Amino acid sequence: MPLIVKDYTWTQTESIVYINVPLKGVKVGKVDIFSTDEYLKVHFPPFLFEAFLSEPIDDDKSTAKIGNGVAVFTLQKKKERLWEHLVINNNDKDKLREIRERELLKAQEKLAAESKAKATKDTRRKEICT
Description:
By secondary structure, the chain is an alpha+beta fold. It has one helix at residues 93-129; strands at 3-4, 9-12, 16-22, 32-35, 39-44, 47-52, 57-67, 70-77. A four-stranded mixed sheet has the order 1-6-5-4, covered by helices on one side. Strands 2-3-8-7 form a four-stranded antiparallel sheet, with no helix packed on it. The longest helix has 37 residues, at 93-129. The radius of gyration is 17 Å and the shape is globular. The model has no long low-confidence stretch (mean pLDDT 91). It is found in: Cell projection, Neuron projection; Dynein axonemal particle; Nucleus. Its main location: other. This is Dynein axonemal assembly factor 4.
């Protein structure tokens, strides 16, 4: 069972959310990050940070930097406004699991589409060269 990280900090502007997650002495190479427009997970055994974001972000324009014992996220908001909360207030584990699974499926579909587009581009390039 992972230890849930609760001592993170966050700040925001109208357009950006900043999240700092302490890595508790875990080496950079042991940190696994997964993010989508509505979900952020940082796993660094035995610790886990999960955020079911209260508002959507633009994952493609957001960044993560790891160093000096902290993971720093700069998340671009889809709608420019201040958030009341970083994460949704929901203790329903089934609902959270449903969100997690939906976001994982969306990420897999996005990767598949990107892979297919790259393969098509490579095929066209080879056809032009021959």
